């Protein structure tokens, strides 16, 4: 019966990782996915898709893959979106997840009924589940800034950007300094008449390779060489200077925060194109003026197309109003996972860490499998963990990062994994 199984809402990477663990641990489940197949944001050209033609992983395959299902040997170090989507679906097939998935079913409403949950979907099905695990991802609702004035050209969010053809022969402005904004600005240099790139603050940049190795692989090995965190990041700054990634060398403002205090911009080309004049760097937009844009430094640019690579917010419109308390862009959850009052409602993938997705997903999913088993037996260790869920949240390193909407969801990779392993051990005890 449906009410004896657990519902996983979302068939993207986090949902796949959790379903895999449930399958391995004999936990009955069903994945509810609005698209026609697994993939989530990697489903190019669909409503859930958030990738474009030139999208590649910004973390190496070693730091992205699941340790119990490595990417194929013939995959490049930074696979493109098609290869990564194929990998996710191959993994789902390998672990027998397709027989537990209901595709083309968007969740419309969720209602608690005691410890269980009644879920209504767009395909007209209504089921009750023993528990719900929300894995709908961070990139659900596009965020677009509002500026004074008006713009007569074409405006679109990165969520609707599929490739550079729309920019061909146009005067392009890309707003947003994150990884997508840098990628799209680089895309535009090949086809656009002019390219301007507006950012609200200075950024640190990292190349895809350092010392002949993927940058994140190189970074992961550094703690073995430096006992002191400050010495480690001072060394990283020196190396980035040597490899040509000091923004001040390109006439860009120098960040007033450390390299380790923000999510990394992994791009080997954006500074190259700025140095060659293919991309003109600009500060924040002050006003839209018809066919032109006024920037914070008083300069103007004539523009035909604006692409807003300005991020997303989580969105769970199917949850009853007031069920979850939101703090900025993130839900208030213990360990970024557990609802403080409803033990059968959990969230997966609500935080971001630099690198190690497969390792984080495996650690989180293994812990949640232990959580379900302990919950079903109502063990003393489960009651201890649930008591923790009602208290203050653990230190996930979030206070070390910049104060910004983007970094409100950022956590320290190693602190997060350490916490997940601690909770798993506690639940299994």
Task: Give the gist of this structure.
The chain has 429 residues and is an alpha/beta fold. The protein has ten helices and 25 strands. The mean pLDDT is 94.
Q: How would you characterize the overall build of this protein?
A:
With 429 residues, the chain is α/β, with parallel strands linked by helices. It has two domains: 2-141 and 312-428, FAD/NAD(P)-binding domain (3-Layer(bba) Sandwich), CATH 3.50.50.60; 144-308, FAD/NAD(P)-binding domain. It contains ten helices and 25 strands. The protein has helices at residues 13-24, 61-64, 81-94, 179-189, 215-221, 229-242, 270-275, 357-377, 380-389, 413-428; strands at 6-9, 29-33, 101-103, 107-113, 116-121, 126-129, 131-134, 141-142, 149-151, 154-157, 171-175, 194-198, 205-206, 209-210, 213-214, 265-266, 280-282, 285-290, 292-295, 300-302, 305-308, 312-313, 326-327, 330-331, 345-347. The strands form eight sheets. The protein has a five-stranded parallel β-sheet, with helices on one face. A five-stranded parallel β-sheet has the order 10-21-11-12-17, with helices on one face. The protein has a four-stranded mixed β-sheet with strand order 9-18-19-20, with no helix packed on it. Strand 19 and strand 20 (300-302) form a beta hairpin. Helix 1 (13-24) crosses helix 8 and helix 8 (357-377) packs parallel to helix 10. The longest helix is centred in the C-terminal third of the chain and has 21 residues, at 357-377. The two termini are 30 Å apart. The model has no long low-confidence stretch (mean pLDDT 94). It comes from Azospirillum argentinense. Pfam families: FMO-like. It is an enzyme of class 1 (oxidoreductase).
């Amino acid at each position: 019966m449906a009410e004896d199984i657990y519902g996983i809402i979302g068939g993207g990477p986090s949902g796949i990782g959790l379903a895999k663990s449930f399958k391995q641990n004999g936990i009955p489940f069903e994945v509810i996915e609005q698209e026609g197949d697994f993939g989530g944001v990697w489903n190019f050209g669909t409503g859930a898709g958030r990738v474009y033609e030139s999208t590649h992983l910004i973390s190496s395959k070693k730091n992205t893959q699941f340790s119990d299902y490595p990417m194929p040997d013939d995959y490049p170090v930074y696979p493109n979106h098609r290869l990564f989507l194929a990998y996710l679906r191959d993994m789902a097939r390998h672990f027998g997840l397709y027989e537990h998935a209901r595709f083309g079913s968007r969740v419309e409403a969720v209602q608690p009924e005691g410890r269980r949950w009644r879920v209504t979907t767009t395909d007209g099905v209504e089921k009750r589940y023993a528990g719900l695990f929300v894995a709908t991802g961070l990139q659900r609702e596009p965020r677009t800034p509002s500026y004074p004035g008006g713009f007569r050209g074409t405006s679109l969010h990165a969520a609707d950007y599929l490739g550079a053809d729309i920019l061909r022969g146009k005067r392009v402005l890309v707003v947003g300094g994150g990884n997508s904004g840098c990628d799209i600005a680089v895309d535009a240099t090949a086809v656009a008449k002019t390219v301007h790139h507006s950012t609200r603050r200075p950024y640190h940049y990292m190349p895809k390779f350092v010392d002949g190795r993927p940058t994140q692989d190189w970074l992961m090995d550094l703690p073995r060489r430096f006992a002191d965190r400050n010495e480690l990041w001072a060394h990283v700054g020196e190396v980035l200077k040597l490899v040509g990634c000091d923004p001040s060398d390109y006439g860009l403002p120098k960040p007033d925060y450390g390299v380790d205090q923000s999510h990394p911009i992994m791009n080997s080309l954006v500074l190259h194109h700025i140095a060659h004049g293919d991309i003109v760097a600009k500060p924040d937009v002050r006003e839209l003026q018809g066919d032109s844009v006024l920037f914070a430094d008083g300069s103007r640019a004539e523009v035909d197309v604006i692409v807003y690579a300005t991020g997303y917010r989580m969105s769970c419109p199917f949850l009853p109003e007031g069920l979850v308390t939101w703090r900025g862009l993130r839900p208030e959850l213990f360990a970024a996972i557990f609802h403080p009052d409803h033990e059968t409602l959990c969230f997966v993938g609500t935080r971001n860490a630099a690198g190690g997705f497969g390792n984080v997903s495996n650690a989180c999913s293994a812990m949640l499998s232990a959580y379900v088993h302990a919950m079903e037996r109502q063990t003393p260790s489960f009651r201890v963990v649930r008591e923790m869920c009602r208290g203050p949240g653990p230190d996930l390193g979030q206070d070390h990062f910049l104060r910004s909407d983007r970094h409100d969801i950022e956590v320290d990779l190693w602190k997060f994994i350490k916490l997940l392993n601690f909770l798993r051990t506690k639940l299994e005890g």
